[in-house]
Amino acid sequence: MNKIENELVEGLKKVMRDISDEMLDESMVMVEIPRDSSMGDYSSNIAMRLTKALKMKPQDVAQLFVEKLPAYCPSLESVEVAGPGFLNFWIKSDQLAGIIKTILDKGEDYGKNDSGQQERVLVEWISVNPTGPLHIGHARSAAWGDVVCRLMEASGYDVLREYYINDAGNQIDNLALSLIARYKEQLGLPFELPEDGYHGEDVSHIAAKLREDFGDDLLEREDVLAFFKEKGIQYEMDRIYEDLQYFRVEMDSWQSEQDLYDEGKVEQVISLMKEKDLTYMEDNALWFRSSLFGDDKDRVLIKADGLYTYLTPDIANHLHKLERGYSRMVNFWGADHHGYIPRMKAALEALGHKDVLDVDIVQMVRMVEDGKEVKMSKRTGNAITLRDLCDDIGVDAVRYNMVTRALETHFDFDLGVARKQSNDNPVYYAQYAYARMNSIFNKVAGFTEQEEYTLLVDEREVDLMKHLGTFTELVSDSARTRQPNKVTNYIQKLAQYFHSFYGALKVNDPEHPQLSNERLALVRATQITLKNALTLIGVSSPESM
After folding, report:
1. Which of the two ends of the chain, N or C, has the fewest CB atoms closer than 10 A to its terminal CB?
2. How distant, in Å, are the alpha carbons of 273, 283, 329 from that of 251?
């Protein structure tokens, strides 16, 4: 919380100690900014929450706070009781203006905080099979996970960003067989794509590249399937890496599923489970007693044919994360994996690691253009790639729009709106505010920083300063809850407050140089905060538009 919020909270706690001989629950004290500014700069419902403990009417409790709070809160202009017992606070404008100096002093560090206390967190997201390029269906997960990492890093968490490469399943066999078929096509030989193969253009491109790099004799190799597997994974992952870089997503670690097998970590899972009597044989399959740990039924680890299920290497993957010293794991999974969460958490709890995994489900985004849904399919080859989408409407527009709605909600992404150069487009609206601020400073010599700003009393100035003062708490809260949409909501409101301020007030007025200086300082503080917020979203701050 900011300085003023902290002063109010501590003041309310001191009043609680004054009005009761008994120890009251101080964790109940909360202050917030009312949606309607006529209800004060801040408000609290603490009086209503104390009625039972004090055996008093809420209005009477509230009146005690009105009488006693000013002695503990020098920033307080006034406090009033509203409705059934709400406390509404008005802050002295010169105290609100203190945020300007704070922002100007901190610059690009404004918003950063240490609420994470260096907790080591491993975040895994995207983790798309290396069987084709990233498509528009991956855009939401890619943007969301990256912004969560940026927020956590800004809030003092020790974050590792990891991509899990699914390079050991049947899909890799199908990729290799698809490549072999397309390689035969390159040579003019008869070919047939496997039933579950991949039909995308990328497969044909890789086959052509393999012929260019290695010649026409690859089908004569003894290890032909293994070779096409290896090269297929390599070429596909190179493309995924390049696309993520283009989309401004950085990974610290690329964990191979095949490496978990090669290093014996999958076998170790079975050994650990057996040692703890967590398994049993039935129908020639090895089962995990996951129902003992909250799952709705037991799960197979090794099938009757001797092959591992998907669950077993996934358990190994999560144990490997913990072995590297991370105390918490965060995964972002598609909606089709929702039922997978209980079994993974059950496995970790059974092996002594309860409550170390958080999984957020990424709901689908429907791409809409001209009122019609844009369809996509990887295997049939007509998918719209992430790069295609970014080339069409820009990386900024894709990233911003993908984190504007809560992750658990479905939403339609209107491509037509995203292309608009108007206020209907949320990222344009925000970036235009930044460019407008920059144009102000292009027309003036500058301003002088002050210790205090005492002339900013217009309600539009006050609204802007109050909003600026909530940014650090917003960053901390958005990191803790893993909700980047709170940041885009903040950005939209900040742009709205600025446009209202700019449209109503003269920023640079030669007849009032002192007021102009303070307003220019407010604009600079707003510009710094907006840029910091856009940077957290991974969106640029254009100097002009």
Report:
1. C
2. 32, 42, 15
Give all strands (DSSP E) within 84-126, no chain letters.
Answer: 86-91, 120-124
* For residue 121, pLDDT beyond 70: yes
The single residue listed with the structure tokens 């004060």 is: 40
pLDDT tens profile 381-424: 567 889 999 999 999 999 999 999 999 999 899 999 999 989 99
Using N-to-C axis directions, what is the helix angle for 426-442 and 513-537, rounded to 10°? Answer: 140
Q: Regarding the domain delimited by 3-91, which CATH topology (the fold level of the hierarchy) does it fall under?
A: Gyrase A; domain 2 (3.30.1360)
Does residue 377 carry a pLDDT above 70? no
Look over the chain and give the mean of its residue pLDDT values, rounded to a whole number: 94
- Confidence at 122, pLDDT banded by 50, 70, 90: very high
DSSP conformation letters of 177-211: HHHHHHHHHHHT------TT---SHHHHHHHHHHH
* Strand 76-82, strand 158-165: pairing: unpaired
Taking the C-alpha atoms of residue 315 and residue 343, their distance in angstroms, rounded to an integer, is 10
Residue identified by tokens 């487009």 is 425
CA separation for the pair 350, 14 (Å, rounded):
46
Homologous superfamily assigned to 98-115+421-537: Isoleucyl-tRNA Synthetase; Domain 1 (1.10.730.10)
User: Which residue in this structure is represented by tokens 């030989």?
Assistant: 189
- E strands, 404-528, where? 411-414
Q: Tell me: the pLDDT tens digits for 293-315?
A: 999 999 999 999 999 999 999 99
